[in-house]
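User: Is it possible to get a 3D structure for a protein together with its bound compound? The compound here is heme C. I've pasted both below.
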Amino acid sequence: MFTKWTPMVVLAAALVAAVSLPMQAQDGEMAAPFGGEEDVAYAGKVWEAMNGYRNWKLSTPVYKGQSPHGAYVRLFSTYITVEGEAHPIIIKENFGGQGVSAEVATENPDEWLKAVTIMLQREEGYDSDNDNWFWVKFSPTGEVLKNPMDMKLAGRVAKGMPKGCIACHSNAGGDDYLFSNDE
Ligand code: HEC
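Assistant: Yes, that's possible. Here is the predicted structure of the complex:
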């Protein structure tokens, strides 16, 4: 029995090694693909560069979203400049609470805003496996929120895990990580 299964065990070990390689930082230290100091610092710069997004011309009305983003959502998009480079960004405002509706969230967005989730496309090579998207979940005041494992939701969230931004968005039609352009 043991000899029969040995090749499987070796194969499984090789797979695990291959999967964990991208998580190895260049200096040899283990680094998670998201939630690190650099990710949070970059997220802070993104938040600053997003300032005034409610006045951007490219936006949707408030509409009924699908779980897990909130009962009602509103999208905004443009290019913003972070660290001297222009990047496309899509912002989603997520509204909720007892009595929320498209009307009240449109009239008084601050009162119903629960979170601001963003996707910003970074430079080539940032995350080639996933179209180089940088993901963040902000509180309404721009703090980076955490997942139940106490990891900050900024960066390649949650690369290699079965749930999270990347896993779910990789199911979007057109293989582009975007749901809003699907039928
Ligand atoms: C379980 C699936 C799922 C997870 C997990 C998820 N999303 Fe989404 N996301 C959606 C769906 C569905 C939409 C389409 C709009 C809607 O109905 O809310 C969407 C829309 C978006 C959009 C607008 C662009 C688009 O795709 O149309 C952004 C930005 C976004 N999500 C960011 C995030 C971030 C950041 C995370 C992780 C913190 C995340 N999402 C996790 C399902 C998910």
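The pocket of heme C is lined by residues 65-66, 68-69, 73, 75, 90, 92, 117-119, 135-137, 153, 157, 164-165, 168-169, 172, 178-180 (CB under 6 Å). The two ends are 51 Å apart (CA to CA).
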